[in-house]
Amino acid sequence: MVLGVFLGLVLSCLLLLSLWRQSSQRRTLPPGPTPLPIIGNILQVDLKNISKSLRDLSKVYGPVFTLYLGRKPAVVLHGYEAVKEAMIDHGEEFAGRGSFPVADKIGQGFGIVFSSGKIWKEMRRFSLMTLRNFGMGKRSIEDRVQEEACCLVEELRKTNGSPCDPTFILGCGPCNVICSIVFQNRFDYKDKEFLNFMDILNENVEILSSPWLQICNNFPSIIDYLPGKHRKLLKNFTFLKDYFLAKVKEHQESLDVNNPRDFIDCFLIKMEQEKNNPKTEFICENLVFSSSDLFAAGTETTSTTLRYSLLLLLKHPGVTAKVQKEIDQVIGRHRSPCMQDRSHMPYTDAVLHEIQRYIDLLPTSLPHAVTCDIKFRNYLIPKGTTVIASLSSVLHDDKEFPNPEKFDPGHFLDENDRFKKSDYFFPFSTGKRICVGEGLARMELFLFLTTILQNFNLKSPVDPKDLDITPVANGFVSVPPEFQICFIPI
Predict the structure, then answer these.
(1) Is pLDDT of 325 > 80?
(2) Which amino acid positions bind heme, per UniProt (predicted)?
């Protein structure tokens, strides 16, 4: 009896403390829905379609509002003006990485994607410099992508025009490009090691985009105690960590400091140069996780975009025909597409931009955090507060893109059918945290898709009108539904 009363008092005190902390925090933060103790506003958010929930809440609370996903507040930025003002005008202050507990469990703040502060700045600067030195945006990387596009076409020919699920094949191309940059070699599409690697990457994206992972990230205490998909994700992360650690050891044994072969070699040389600096960030942990980050980010986002691209092109055969006509006029059938062609292909360029706008691949990007106390739009946001930038609200802005829910390449064409840029085009995020591999991704999308359409007509086994293009998951990444496609040689 006494024990029960005591426990009741303790729980009541904890509840009151939680309410008091939330109340004191809310006085300086932007307005938002009233949170419940412990769970916050989680019941007011559709974890299968977070973007829609944020849009609905913004209609009530404005473009900058506070949401409690669990006990901690997150400031939401909705619409172009709010996202630009924070991420670009105050880029340095909003450049922190918000909490992502499932990833932090393995990565512990190392690498590029989930790091902050000095580690992030050093790893990002080094990665950008190394990618440029290996030709990102230059001829040498373009050669690799063109070569891989030809390999992809040969693999597609083996389907003999029969219906197939393109998920695996479309993942192989971007994966091999990253392989050649990070550890110098590409894999045969039938290689067992490669097949296992691709399966893990695909599985990780599906799990990361599931509602369960949103719950784990907002209630991290359950990660260690409850079963669920997060266990498989942690196991996969551990496998990737060990895989890259083995690659690093192989490189250490064959390293020639005068002839770096790839990203790992360049990092090892930098580690040797910095070995007497006790404050250096160039340590083995950052090498392993930076390599893994480049691999995961450079493979899955591009392959998912390619897969969604083909689904949209099947759904809109008239658009596909116009792209193929432009390919015939500018490139022809007897040479491979190159990046110089893009400036002469306004319709194709507009289609690629519209695909990325329409699919809204990363609806809320990854969470940011403010790096210091900052006054933003008359609200005081304390250092470390999580910030969620709704990229969906920018890419689907109805003033910039009339009928944003409609797939229309005309969104990126002027009245003379010339390509038209848009300041609202944020598929790779924006500001200090914009995707490191943006240039490589844009190159791959253009070269892979134009090479496929140069060599094949696309045919759907079902009527295009019956194709479902609604994403099956819309959490971390917008995942397209499974579909079948026939690649008919031209």
Answers:
(1) yes
(2) 435
